[in-house]
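Continuing the series of single-chain predictions for the mutant panel. This is the parent chain; the variants come on the following pages.
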Amino acid sequence: MKRTLTLTLSIAALLLVAFGGSTSAQFGGAQLAVPEIPFDSVPNFLKLPDGLYLGEVPGVATNSKGHVFVYSRTGTTTATLGGSRVFTHGGSRLFEFDDKGTYVREIGVGIYGFVFAHVVRIDPQDNIWVVDEAANLVMKFDPNGRILMTIGRKPESINIRNFEPPAPPAPAGRAGGAAAGREGGGGGRGQQAAAPPVVGAGVEGESFNRPTDVGWDAQGNVFVSDGYGNSRVVKYDKNGVFLKMVGHRGTGPLEFNTPHGLAVDAQGNVYI
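Parent structure:
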């Protein structure tokens, strides 16, 4: 059945009158053109196998063949305590359907990074990218479903980058040796030097805090909106090497609240 979706028009949307195929709306006595989006409703398009159900679906994308990828919060999240960290896994699943909605396969079955689905994207080479909010990971799969890259990591129990080893023991009989050892900066086995102030949880882009989206420019550089916790945008090269970051929580220039969606245009401009 053919339907029409009528957009709600705000004052800021006056620029949309240039679009064709419009209806009219009245604001303060002025008659304005409101764009319409024609669409066909296809009920039950996705044909799921018996016993398979979708949960919350925050991510849907299509590739060059018209295949549909659905990243769903389906399944049961489990958590185990290992040392000083809690490991969670199994809370999300990634499904592929063909252009007719027929089920093709599940990708990344049981992978440790599928915890709390947030978005799935397909790049120009048909690689599949997944952003998992709870795992704090961005994962790249090739078109065959093999994992190629992960970006992001959990903070380590000891920050190796800023770890300062204990000072060597003072020679026997040397006066003030213990004090000299303390002045060396270690101050005791396993003590960690104070880390330099860094906005958000990540050091040089290594750690995300509930990321939300991913995109690419024409050179293959990767942009990640590191949304809920770090309130920043991070740039990596095509091999996943950190290049730079911008933004932190606030209301001023280059400050964000929760950068939730991201898009990159043909000129390499990034939209948040």
